[in-house]
Design goal:
Blueprint: H1 2-33, H2 38-59, H3 61-65, H4 70-82, H5 88-104, H6 114-122, H7 125-138, H8 140-160
Helix pairs in contact: 1-2, 1-4, 2-5, 7-8
Length: 161
């Protein structure tokens, strides 16, 4: 059974850099070269989370050394963050990093209401960037007026059908 653990530790030594650095590096370069913004967001999110975990490991290295199979746990978590099928990086970012960032840092360029944020997260990345540009150019009040007019028009069309 000792050979199994030795093999597992050796596999982590090879798989860790491949999963956490080489594949994300390759995918990030592809994302930069692609015309779509969704993949850019996915990989930027991954690198933000990877940086955070790396800093956390530097600070808490003595604690992590006592956790059994820490390298295996870290590898599994990195795979979940990296693999586009799971979109773990986006999930963690949306659930934890983004709310903390907006609650502690006042970002002058992106003062969106909750309704605006929900709407932007529900549309395609191309439409989202157009709406975000509109809000930056015209202010969030102009966006609210358009949304209210669209909602009124939608209600009017429902009643007339």
């Amino acid at each position: 059974m000792g050979w199994f653990w030795a093999l597992l530790l050796r596999a982590n030594a090879l798989a860790g850099p491949v999963v956490m650095l080489l594949y994300p590096l390759y995918a990030s370069i592809k994302a930069i070269e692609s015309p779509f913004k969704e993949d850019d967001r996915l990989w930027l999110t991954y690198w933000v989370l990877y940086s955070f975990v790396s800093l956390l490991e530097l600070v808490a290295a003595p604690i992590f050394a006592w956790i059994p199979l820490w390298s295996t746990i870290k590898l599994a978590a990195a795979a979940w963050l990296v693999l586009p099928q799971f979109r773990g990086g986006i999930i963690v970012y949306e659930q934890y990093v983004r709310p903390y960032f907006y609650s502690t840092v006042q970002n002058a360029d992106a003062k969106l209401t909750d309704t605006q944020g929900k709407f932007l997260s529900s549309i395609s990345p191309e439409a989202c960037s157009s709406v975000a540009q509109f809000i930056n150019d015209n202010g969030s009040d102009a966006f609210d007026k358009i949304m209210a007019a669209a909602a009124a028009e939608s209600r009017k069309n429902r009643w007339s059908s």
